[in-house]
Amino acid sequence: MSKKIVVIGPESTGKSTLAEQLAAHYKTEWVKEYAREYLLKNGTDYSFENLLDIAKGQIAGEEAAITHRPLTIDHGQPLFIDTDLYVMKVWCEFVFEKCHHWILNRIVERKYDLYLLCNVDLPWVKDELREYPDLENRLKLYHHYRDIMINQNIPWIDISGNYEERLQTAIAAVDKII
Known about the structure:
Layout: E1 4-8, H1 15-25, E2 30-31, H2 34-42, H3 48-67, E3 79-82, H4 85-96, H5 101-109, E4 114-118, H6 135-150, E5 156-159, H7 163-177
Parallel strand pairs: 1-3, 1-4, 2-3, 4-5
């Protein structure tokens, strides 16, 4: 069974870029962040309930990738996942100061092999979906993720530096577990 590696962190920290680069490096695929698709389709004026819909969509995408991997991909290759339900937990708590029990229950149930936590040392890039350009909030969010990583049992590594340094750090970490 292939290893599942999750790329997490605050917005505009290179998560999607890193997941895509890793998938290309290992000649495998990656699960895109469902929130981007959802918000582009439904708008950025979201509610607490919308975050539950987004969480369910993220899991559905992950399950589809696991179940229907193309025959052209070696099924022993890792699967890279751009965000998981820890991201949904942080989002719910940061914006609404509460989290759906469904999300918390899925966090306990789902199993991964490695987390790559993207640091906020890349410049923030504006796009229509991003909400927190200020360094203060970005650091608060990063520390929230870091606390989660410290207090869970799955191996994790901090990913920082420029894009190439991030990729090389991530490859080294992935190589250790596959």
